[in-house]
Amino acid sequence: MAVKFKVIQRKNPRDLLAAPKSYAIAINNGTVDIDRLAELVGDGSTVRQNDIYAVIIGLLNVIVGELKEGRSVRLDKLGMFSISVSSDPSDTPEEVTASNIKSAKVRYRPGKELRNMLKTLEYTKTSS
């Protein structure tokens, strides 16, 4: 198995007069939804698909609750989830309030096993 990629050309936004450069971008080979994941996990274990689905949804609810409390959630091999914010600047620390925060994101940092997988990927160039 290999990750397919194609070549695109992009201009340098800092130098619009420069010649475009060629870059590889990964091609998405489809999407797997939660039902399919539950089915695949169920096929490899003695646990039924609907039980796996319930655990995944329950885990999501717990992760959301913990993130709302300001905690990071570490799922060992899977990775870690945390909240990161972007804010408008103020001249002094005293002037910074919650109203400075303009957006928040869920940050995901993959675990070691997922990071290692990235190091061993194989790639196939496509013409599309």
From TrEMBL:
Transmembrane segments: none annotated. It comes from the Bacteria. Keywords: DNA-binding. InterPro entries: HU-HIG (IPR041607), HU_DNA-bd_put (IPR005902), IHF-like_DNA-bd_dom_sf (IPR010992). Residues 1-124 form the HU domain. One of its GO terms (molecular function) is DNA binding. This is HU family DNA-binding protein. It comes from Kordia aestuariivivens. The lineage of its organism: Bacteria, Pseudomonadati, Bacteroidota, Flavobacteriia, Flavobacteriales.
